[in-house]
Amino acid sequence: MIREGWLGRFYEDFEIGDVYRHALGRTISETDNTWFTLLTMNTNQMHFNAQYSSQSEFGKLLVNSTLTLAIVVGMSVSDISQNAVANLGWDDIKLLHPVFVGDTLWAESQVIDKRESKSRPDGGIVHVRTRGLNQNGDICITYFRTVLVHRKSARSLTQAFPEPVSNFDS
């Protein structure tokens, strides 16, 4: 018997006040930080020059803040936007505590509002507040996010798995 895996939440699954502690943590390596910084053409040496950053007030490499944002958003996808039509915005992004190479980030999101879409009957708009914490519980980043999410009736969009040409038994 084939059992469906986690397909994420649909519009009807969100309840105002619910908090989702996203399941996976992520330790940030020096390679992650350097590659992301170079890919995004960020020339601040605090992110890729150990000798330079050792002379700063932090005394070590500082993780690129947009990498922190990208990882925390990514952690929330399976709970918040797996079934998104589109991201509609990120607001009020705050960087509250520095993130360093070797830190492990965790994230949680709270549903703060939802409403039916006026222009898309197959979806609804969900507003969440998300925060990213390091391994010590320090809140490193917070933001508000607005997502247009499919309704369950649009579920056919999630059925992309191809039909196998043979069974496991063959």
Briefly, what is this?
This protein is an alpha+beta fold.
Question: Can you give a write-up of this model?
Answer:
- The chain is globular, with a radius of gyration of 19 Å.
- The chain starts with 18 loop residues before the first strand and ends in a 20-residue tail after the last strand.
- The chain has 170 residues and is of the alpha+beta class.
- Strand 4 and strand 5 form a beta hairpin.
- The longest helix has 16 residues.
- The mean pLDDT is 92.
- Strands 1, 2, 3, 4, 5 and 6 form a six-stranded antiparallel sheet that branches.
- It has one domain: Hotdog Thioesterase (Thiol Ester Dehydrase, Chain A, Roll), CATH 3.10.129.10.
Write the layout of secondary structure elements.
Elements: E1 19-21, E2 26-27, H1 30-39, H2 50-54, H3 65-80, E3 84-95, E4 104-116, E5 123-133, E6 139-150
Antiparallel strand pairs: 1-4, 2-4, 3-6, 4-5, 5-6
Characteristic terms for this protein:
170 residues; alpha+beta; Thiol Ester Dehydrase, Chain A; 6-stranded antiparallel sheet; 6 strands
Mean pLDDT: 92
| Uncertain spans | none
State the CATH architecture: Roll
Quickly count the domains.
Answer: 1
Structural class, from helix and strand content?
alpha+beta
Number of strands: 6
Helix content: 10-25%
- Assembly type of the chains comes to single chain
Under CATH, the topology can be stated as Thiol Ester Dehydrase, Chain A
CATH homologous superfamily identity: Hotdog Thioesterase
One letter per element, helices H and strands E, the order comes to EEHHHEEEE
